[in-house]
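PT: before anyone asks, these are the final sequences, not the draft ones from last week. 368 residues across everything. Please model them as a single complex and drop the result in this thread when it's through.
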Amino acid sequence: MTSIPLVDLAAQHAAVADEVAEGWREVLAGTAFIGGPQVAAFERAYAEFVGVPHCVGTGNGTDAIEIALRALGVGQGDECILPANTFIATAEAVSRAGAKPVLVDCADDDTYLIDNDAVAAAVTPRTAAILPVHLYGQVAPVERLSPLAKRTGAWVVEDAAQAHGARRDGMSAGALGDVAATSFYPGKNLGAYGDAGAVLTRSSAVAARMRMIADHGSPAKYRHDVLGVNSRLDTLQAVVLSAKLRRLAAWNAARRAAAARYDALLSGCAAVRRPRTLDGNEHVWHLYTVRVPDRDRVLKELQAAGIGAGIHYPVPIHLTPAFADLGYAEGAFPVAERSARELLTLPLFAEITEAQQERVAEVLMAAL
Ligand SMILES: *Cc1c(COP(=O)(O)O)cnc(C)c1O
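LR: through. Structure below.
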């Protein structure tokens, strides 16, 4: 029995291998490994793809969130509201910017997106930013957060790391808040061959500030106006990202077809709760997550059958040891905690075959 990976990066590389090799030859010949013209070209292309005027490449997605917050003046003494069910990076970046993460629960048991009512209840005079996470590939309903943020004087910073190309009511993830941060970690829908990330904004002033912070707080060589970080997008990674960006829409369409196929294959199985797409959303299926009873046993059976299923995420932020000092107790966010116990991510990537998906469904349903 051949195994089925959670994501198949080799299949994806095959599609861009020649273009990347050619682009890398040029970079190696030119030796502009930092800040080469390929970086600016990718930043322009990605800004255009998202539909905002400014994109600044960063070293990774976690730094991107921190840089966005710092550029907006968020730091010591401020609170930032974010969901308890997300990858650690969202909370980590808030803490590293010097602010305090304030967590809220998911809205429901089948979209897993941030609960906007809980956000409204969590706002205080110290709230400086709200960070909706476009989890698993669909856009959080930001249209309700933006008026709230405006009223309370907070910024909306989108965590768009899982939503390259996702849209809500025709608008792209990354174009809905004051600033968006994203990650090009290899397994993301748009992935580099190492660490990479970016920030996006409509504001030229905020873009300039983010670019300065990401480059040692330096607006010009050997001038350092603020304390910055060293977090730039490598030229070699920009080549990979530009090559993949040209194919992203087609890959996302293939993911959507694969998600629809899982929906059909699993629709007859009452024990499987399938993910729901919010009205108005064009989902890009970064992850296809189902809920199942007895999840840990089911996961083991899938893995024993060579199926690379996973869990996103096994521990919500408030129960993570690194965030123990936030002081949240078990039971604080019941929907997120239920998700952590029951969610199961099935293999999904643009190149997955019908036969592979049928096998995943067959093993899953037999386990149940
Ligand atoms: C991947 C990811 C990030 C950032 O990750 P990096 O590994 O630092 O690039 C941030 N938020 C979410 C939700 C993510 O999935």
